[in-house]
Amino acid sequence: MTNNSTWVACWGNATSITNRSEAIYAKDLTLRYPIRMCFSGSMLRFRFSNLTGTEPVTLDKVLVGHTPITFGGEKSVTLMPGTETESDAISYAVSRGDTIEVSMYLAGYTQMNSGTLITGPLSKGFYAYGDYAEADELPLNLSRRTNWFYFLNTIDVLTSAENHAIVCYGDSITAQSWPDYMAQQAFGSNVSIIRRAVSGTRILRQYDCITYQAYGLKGATRFPIEMNVAGATDVIIQHGINDIIHPVGTDINPFRPWSDLPTVEEMERGVEDIYVKPAKAMGLKVWSGTLLPIYGWRTYNEDRETMRQQFNEWLRTSPIFDGCIDFDAAVRSITNPKAFADGFDSGDHLHPSERAYEMMAQAAAHKLIRYTPRYDHEESY
User: Fold this and answer.
1) What is the DSSP string of 296-365?
2) DSSP H or E stretch at residue 280
3) CA–CA distance, 161 with 188 (Å, rounded to integer)
4) The pTM is what?
5) What mean pLDDT, rounded, does the chain reach?
6) What is the pLDDT of residues 190-240, one digit of tens each?
7) CA–CA gap between residue 257 and residue 110 (Å, rounded)
8) Within 10 A of 380 (CB to CB), how many other CB atoms are there?
9) Nearest to residue 322, comparing CAs of 283, 348, 374?
10) Comparing 11-20, 319-328, 347-356, which segment has the lowest mean pLDDT?
11) pLDDT exceeds cutoff 90 at 281
12) Residues with Cβ < 8 Å from 164, sequence gap 6 or more?
């Protein structure tokens, strides 16, 4: 009989402003997200977020499988703008390796401002036109896959006290595949991998124009909200490349002035004050993650490369961290350390290939996954 005594986050995302397109409302829509369980447990609770919304959002039906997710006993919930809402804890036994499906039905016109684009082998969702939240399967002719995760922010499981969570915090690099590969490597251990990442985000700045609003909130705004993670013991910070590469001058882009370009010292101070000190106050271990190569990226120049190298050296050596995960070393070319190794560039010279993301996951798992015992039988209740 397993003693389930501790709430631990077993899946999580950031919530940010969605991409500003022609259509920002939905109506008569079902969202469904399959989530693999990394722990066994006896109860679940769910957090839904309208953090970046400007209007109330009503989820008319919310289910895990065929079981209603309730909020103060009610089967529907209205998420107020700028807030996150936690469900009731519900009895729902899960075993390690199970896939649960979280479904939401949006009946009326719904502002789709709060969500995040993520990718990876464990990150996929679906939407369907119509009310199919209670259906076993979504109708093939009315549904499509999506990598936009709307409203669903975190899932906690009541599980064994030995289990704990590691948070991966960052930008588009972390919104893509390496946390999923790390979760695959951690599977069977007592560790969950919680992703808190938004493409385009910076440590020190944020955009307020609709062109770049989807690049999300600055670090000082994001971090206190996103670090609400039950059972977290560690956080990996891989953030800062956008602070370096975004500014180009208003003569080229009116939204990207040179005044947005920080010094390396300002970035270091930002990481320490915005991330490390608050995380340490939460009792977390803090791991730095070095910035990846940018040689060939459209705004690359030698001054930006020098900033990246200086910042990486600080990430590797500063005593404020509990350790460094040298992602740069894991993916860079031996003969040209400014660039990705052969086969490790996605093609844009900024984001890694899938092979490179696997190497990043291995580097992180090597530091943080202490053991991976394999369970030959399901835990019982």
Assistant:
1) T-TT--HHHHHHHHHHHHHHHH-TTSSEEE-HHHHHB-SS-TTSBPTT-B-SSSSSBPHHHHHHHHHHHH
2) helix 277-281
3) 15
4) 0.94
5) 95
6) 999 999 999 999 999 999 899 998 999 999 999 999 999 999 999 999 999
7) 34
8) 9
9) 283
10) 11-20
11) yes
12) 8, 190, 191, 192, 231, 232, 233
Q: How is residue 61 annotated by DSSP?
A: E
Cβ pair 245, 200 in contact under 8 A = no
Would the CA dihedral through 272, 278, 283, 288 be positive or negative? negative
Closest by alpha carbon to 2, among 36, 33, 43? 43
pLDDT in tens, 32-80: 999 999 999 999 999 999 999 999 999 999 999 999 999 999 999 999 9
Please give the full DSSP string across 4-46, using - where no structure is assigned. Answer: EEEEEEEEE---EEPP--S--EE-SEEEEEEEE-SS-EEEEEE
Residue type, 130: G
Taken as a whole, the chain contains a residue count of 381
Local structure of 205: helix, strand or coil:
coil
Whether 16 and 217 have beta carbons less than 8 Å apart is answered as yes
Distance separating alpha carbons of residues 218 and 199, to the nearest angstrom:
11
Q: Are strands 323-325 and 232-238 parallel, antiparallel or unpaired?
A: unpaired
Collapse the DSSP code of 272 into the 3-class scheme (helix H, G, I; strand E, B; otherwise coil) and give the result: helix
> Rounded to whole angstroms, how far apart are CA atoms 258 and 248?
6
> How many secondary structure helices (H) and strands (E) does the chain include?
9, 23
- pLDDT of 380 reads 34
| Rg of the Cα atoms in the chain | 21
Which string of DSSP letters, residue by residue, matches 69-125? P-BTTBS-EEEPTT-EEEPPPEEEEE-TT-EEEEEEEE-S-EE--EEEE--STT--E
pLDDT tens figures, 153-173: 999 999 999 999 999 999 999
CA–centroid distance for 192 within its chain: 13
Tell me if 77 sits within 8 A of 50, measured CB to CB: no
Residue 379 has pLDDT above 50, yes or no: no
